[in-house]
Design a protein that fits this description.
CATH class: Mainly Alpha
Distance between the termini: 23 Å
Low-confidence stretches: 237-245
Strand order of the largest sheet: 1-2
Number of strands: 2
Shape: globular
Number of domains: 1
CATH superfamily: Heme oxygenase-like
Number of helices: 12
Structural class: mainly alpha
Strand content: under 5%
Mean pLDDT: 89
Largest sheet: 2 strands, antiparallel
CATH architecture: Up-down Bundle
CATH topology: Heme Oxygenase, Chain A
Helix content: 55-70%
Radius of gyration: 18 Å
Amino acid sequence: MVLGAGLAERLREGTRAAHGLAEETVYMRCFTQGVVGRGAFRQWLMDLYGVYRLLEEQMGELAATEPAIAGIQFPELWRTAAIAADLEFYWGPDWEALVQPSEAGTVYLARLGAVAWQQPELLVAHAYVRYMGDLSGGQGLKAMARKALNLPEDRGTQFHTFEALPTVEAQRAFKGRYREALNGLPLTEAQIQAIVAEANLAFHLNCGLMRGLEPLLKSEVDPERWRGAIARRAGESGHAPALVGG
Protein backbone atom coordinates (compact mmCIF):
# COMPACT_ATOMS: atom_id res chain seq x y z
CA MET A 1 0.00 0.00 0.00
CA VAL A 2 1.34 3.43 -0.95
CA LEU A 3 -0.16 6.81 -0.20
CA GLY A 4 -1.26 8.25 -3.51
CA ALA A 5 2.21 7.93 -5.08
CA GLY A 6 1.78 11.22 -6.93
CA LEU A 7 -1.74 10.31 -8.07
CA ALA A 8 -2.66 13.91 -8.89
CA GLU A 9 0.26 14.32 -11.28
CA ARG A 10 -0.22 10.87 -12.76
CA LEU A 11 -3.84 11.66 -13.44
CA ARG A 12 -2.93 14.97 -15.05
CA GLU A 13 -0.22 13.51 -17.26
CA GLY A 14 -1.97 10.23 -17.91
CA THR A 15 -5.14 11.88 -19.24
CA ARG A 16 -3.53 14.63 -21.31
CA ALA A 17 -4.43 13.08 -24.68
CA ALA A 18 -8.01 12.28 -23.68
CA HIS A 19 -8.36 15.80 -22.31
CA GLY A 20 -7.36 17.20 -25.69
CA LEU A 21 -9.99 15.09 -27.45
CA ALA A 22 -12.68 16.45 -25.14
CA GLU A 23 -11.68 20.03 -25.96
CA GLU A 24 -11.95 19.35 -29.68
CA THR A 25 -15.52 18.06 -29.83
CA VAL A 26 -17.75 20.19 -32.06
CA TYR A 27 -19.90 21.16 -29.06
CA MET A 28 -16.93 22.39 -27.02
CA ARG A 29 -15.29 24.10 -30.00
CA CYS A 30 -18.47 26.08 -30.53
CA PHE A 31 -18.99 26.73 -26.83
CA THR A 32 -15.54 28.25 -26.43
CA GLN A 33 -16.28 30.57 -29.35
CA GLY A 34 -19.48 31.78 -27.75
CA VAL A 35 -21.81 29.72 -29.94
CA VAL A 36 -24.14 28.12 -27.41
CA GLY A 37 -27.60 26.77 -28.23
CA ARG A 38 -30.14 26.97 -25.42
CA GLY A 39 -31.60 23.56 -26.20
CA ALA A 40 -28.22 21.85 -26.37
CA PHE A 41 -27.08 23.56 -23.16
CA ARG A 42 -30.10 22.47 -21.17
CA GLN A 43 -29.83 18.91 -22.51
CA TRP A 44 -26.18 18.88 -21.40
CA LEU A 45 -27.31 19.97 -17.94
CA MET A 46 -29.95 17.25 -17.94
CA ASP A 47 -27.33 14.59 -18.58
CA LEU A 48 -24.95 16.07 -16.02
CA TYR A 49 -27.72 16.09 -13.43
CA GLY A 50 -28.00 12.32 -13.69
CA VAL A 51 -24.22 11.90 -13.58
CA TYR A 52 -23.73 14.06 -10.49
CA ARG A 53 -26.75 12.74 -8.65
CA LEU A 54 -25.57 9.16 -9.02
CA LEU A 55 -21.91 9.96 -8.38
CA GLU A 56 -22.67 11.93 -5.23
CA GLU A 57 -25.13 9.36 -3.93
CA GLN A 58 -22.57 6.61 -4.44
CA MET A 59 -19.75 8.54 -2.83
CA GLY A 60 -21.93 9.42 0.13
CA GLU A 61 -22.88 5.79 0.67
CA LEU A 62 -19.36 4.40 0.19
CA ALA A 63 -17.42 6.94 2.26
CA ALA A 64 -18.04 4.99 5.47
CA THR A 65 -16.45 1.80 4.14
CA GLU A 66 -14.05 2.93 1.40
CA PRO A 67 -11.08 5.03 2.60
CA ALA A 68 -10.25 6.13 -0.95
CA ILE A 69 -13.73 7.62 -1.32
CA ALA A 70 -13.73 9.16 2.15
CA GLY A 71 -10.45 10.90 1.37
CA ILE A 72 -11.97 13.01 -1.41
CA GLN A 73 -15.39 13.56 0.12
CA PHE A 74 -15.89 17.31 -0.23
CA PRO A 75 -19.57 18.30 -0.03
CA GLU A 76 -18.71 21.86 -1.04
CA LEU A 77 -18.10 20.48 -4.54
CA TRP A 78 -21.42 18.68 -4.93
CA ARG A 79 -23.36 19.84 -7.96
CA THR A 80 -26.70 18.03 -7.85
CA ALA A 81 -28.68 20.80 -6.13
CA ALA A 82 -27.08 23.51 -8.25
CA ILE A 83 -27.96 21.74 -11.50
CA ALA A 84 -31.49 21.12 -10.23
CA ALA A 85 -31.87 24.89 -9.83
CA ASP A 86 -30.72 25.37 -13.42
CA LEU A 87 -33.09 22.73 -14.73
CA GLU A 88 -36.01 24.42 -12.99
CA PHE A 89 -35.00 27.67 -14.66
CA TYR A 90 -34.88 26.11 -18.13
CA TRP A 91 -37.71 23.59 -17.87
CA GLY A 92 -40.05 25.04 -15.23
CA PRO A 93 -41.33 23.68 -11.90
CA ASP A 94 -42.19 20.27 -13.36
CA TRP A 95 -38.67 19.67 -14.68
CA GLU A 96 -38.25 16.41 -12.76
CA ALA A 97 -40.95 14.78 -14.86
CA LEU A 98 -39.07 15.80 -18.01
CA VAL A 99 -35.55 14.70 -17.10
CA GLN A 100 -34.44 11.87 -19.37
CA PRO A 101 -30.79 10.96 -19.98
CA SER A 102 -29.58 10.82 -23.55
CA GLU A 103 -28.23 7.59 -25.00
CA ALA A 104 -24.71 8.66 -24.09
CA GLY A 105 -25.91 9.69 -20.64
CA THR A 106 -27.36 6.23 -20.09
CA VAL A 107 -24.00 4.67 -20.96
CA TYR A 108 -22.25 7.03 -18.52
CA LEU A 109 -24.66 6.16 -15.71
CA ALA A 110 -24.24 2.45 -16.34
CA ARG A 111 -20.48 2.77 -15.97
CA LEU A 112 -20.80 4.68 -12.71
CA GLY A 113 -23.11 2.00 -11.36
CA ALA A 114 -20.76 -0.77 -12.41
CA VAL A 115 -17.63 0.67 -10.80
CA ALA A 116 -19.44 1.53 -7.57
CA TRP A 117 -20.43 -2.11 -7.28
CA GLN A 118 -17.25 -3.76 -8.54
CA GLN A 119 -14.32 -1.37 -7.87
CA PRO A 120 -15.54 1.59 -5.83
CA GLU A 121 -12.11 3.22 -5.70
CA LEU A 122 -12.48 3.94 -9.42
CA LEU A 123 -15.05 6.59 -8.53
CA VAL A 124 -12.01 8.68 -7.61
CA ALA A 125 -11.31 8.97 -11.34
CA HIS A 126 -14.81 10.15 -12.15
CA ALA A 127 -14.80 12.68 -9.31
CA TYR A 128 -11.43 14.02 -10.46
CA VAL A 129 -12.47 14.49 -14.07
CA ARG A 130 -15.74 16.24 -13.28
CA TYR A 131 -14.96 18.37 -10.23
CA MET A 132 -11.52 19.56 -11.25
CA GLY A 133 -12.95 20.56 -14.60
CA ASP A 134 -15.75 22.45 -12.87
CA LEU A 135 -13.21 24.43 -10.88
CA SER A 136 -11.01 25.11 -13.90
CA GLY A 137 -12.34 25.71 -17.40
CA GLY A 138 -15.91 25.41 -16.21
CA GLN A 139 -15.67 28.92 -14.80
CA GLY A 140 -14.86 30.28 -18.26
CA LEU A 141 -17.78 28.36 -19.75
CA LYS A 142 -20.10 30.00 -17.22
CA ALA A 143 -19.25 33.45 -18.54
CA MET A 144 -19.60 32.31 -22.15
CA ALA A 145 -23.00 30.72 -21.53
CA ARG A 146 -24.35 33.79 -19.73
CA LYS A 147 -23.29 36.07 -22.56
CA ALA A 148 -24.40 33.81 -25.41
CA LEU A 149 -27.79 32.99 -23.89
CA ASN A 150 -28.38 36.47 -22.46
CA LEU A 151 -29.09 35.03 -19.03
CA PRO A 152 -30.23 37.07 -16.03
CA GLU A 153 -27.96 37.50 -13.03
CA ASP A 154 -27.40 34.24 -11.15
CA ARG A 155 -29.91 32.26 -13.19
CA GLY A 156 -29.24 29.32 -15.46
CA THR A 157 -25.57 28.82 -14.56
CA GLN A 158 -25.72 27.67 -10.94
CA PHE A 159 -23.92 24.52 -12.05
CA HIS A 160 -20.78 26.62 -12.37
CA THR A 161 -21.30 28.55 -9.12
CA PHE A 162 -19.52 27.33 -5.98
CA GLU A 163 -20.93 29.25 -3.04
CA ALA A 164 -18.26 27.94 -0.68
CA LEU A 165 -15.52 28.92 -3.14
CA PRO A 166 -16.64 32.29 -4.47
CA THR A 167 -13.34 33.64 -5.79
CA VAL A 168 -10.67 32.52 -8.23
CA GLU A 169 -8.18 32.51 -5.37
CA ALA A 170 -10.40 30.30 -3.23
CA GLN A 171 -10.90 27.86 -6.10
CA ARG A 172 -7.18 27.76 -6.86
CA ALA A 173 -6.38 27.06 -3.22
CA PHE A 174 -9.00 24.34 -3.07
CA LYS A 175 -7.58 22.62 -6.15
CA GLY A 176 -4.27 22.43 -4.32
CA ARG A 177 -6.04 20.88 -1.35
CA TYR A 178 -7.76 18.41 -3.66
CA ARG A 179 -4.44 17.35 -5.21
CA GLU A 180 -3.01 16.80 -1.74
CA ALA A 181 -6.03 14.67 -0.86
CA LEU A 182 -5.52 12.57 -4.00
CA ASN A 183 -1.86 12.04 -3.14
CA GLY A 184 -2.80 10.93 0.36
CA LEU A 185 -5.26 8.21 -0.63
CA PRO A 186 -4.38 4.69 0.59
CA LEU A 187 -4.00 2.88 -2.75
CA THR A 188 -1.92 0.11 -4.22
CA GLU A 189 0.10 0.71 -7.38
CA ALA A 190 -2.35 -1.48 -9.28
CA GLN A 191 -5.27 0.63 -8.04
CA ILE A 192 -3.48 3.84 -9.06
CA GLN A 193 -2.97 2.52 -12.57
CA ALA A 194 -6.62 1.47 -12.73
CA ILE A 195 -7.77 4.92 -11.58
CA VAL A 196 -5.72 6.63 -14.31
CA ALA A 197 -7.19 4.27 -16.90
CA GLU A 198 -10.69 4.95 -15.57
CA ALA A 199 -10.11 8.70 -15.76
CA ASN A 200 -9.36 8.30 -19.46
CA LEU A 201 -12.61 6.41 -19.84
CA ALA A 202 -14.41 9.19 -17.95
CA PHE A 203 -13.11 11.70 -20.47
CA HIS A 204 -14.38 9.55 -23.32
CA LEU A 205 -17.79 9.26 -21.62
CA ASN A 206 -17.92 13.04 -21.38
CA CYS A 207 -16.95 13.27 -25.05
CA GLY A 208 -19.91 11.00 -25.76
CA LEU A 209 -22.25 13.43 -24.02
CA MET A 210 -20.95 16.32 -26.09
CA ARG A 211 -20.98 14.43 -29.39
CA GLY A 212 -24.60 13.56 -28.70
CA LEU A 213 -25.41 17.28 -28.46
CA GLU A 214 -24.01 18.09 -31.90
CA PRO A 215 -27.23 17.47 -33.93
CA LEU A 216 -29.28 19.57 -31.51
CA LEU A 217 -26.75 22.40 -31.57
CA LYS A 218 -26.66 22.42 -35.37
CA SER A 219 -30.46 22.43 -35.55
CA GLU A 220 -30.82 25.59 -33.42
CA VAL A 221 -27.79 27.62 -34.51
CA ASP A 222 -27.31 29.19 -37.93
CA PRO A 223 -24.88 27.01 -39.96
CA GLU A 224 -22.60 29.97 -40.66
CA ARG A 225 -22.23 30.57 -36.92
CA TRP A 226 -21.30 27.04 -35.88
CA ARG A 227 -19.09 26.47 -38.93
CA GLY A 228 -17.37 29.77 -38.30
CA ALA A 229 -16.85 28.90 -34.64
CA ILE A 230 -15.20 25.62 -35.56
CA ALA A 231 -12.97 27.33 -38.11
CA ARG A 232 -11.92 30.04 -35.66
CA ARG A 233 -11.18 27.49 -32.97
CA ALA A 234 -9.10 25.42 -35.40
CA GLY A 235 -7.10 28.50 -36.34
CA GLU A 236 -6.22 29.53 -32.81
CA SER A 237 -2.80 28.82 -31.42
CA GLY A 238 -4.07 28.66 -27.85
CA HIS A 239 -6.42 26.19 -26.21
CA ALA A 240 -10.01 26.05 -25.13
CA PRO A 241 -10.75 26.46 -21.42
CA ALA A 242 -9.49 23.31 -19.73
CA LEU A 243 -12.16 20.76 -18.88
CA VAL A 244 -10.05 19.52 -15.99
CA GLY A 245 -7.54 21.39 -13.92
CA GLY A 246 -5.48 18.54 -12.46
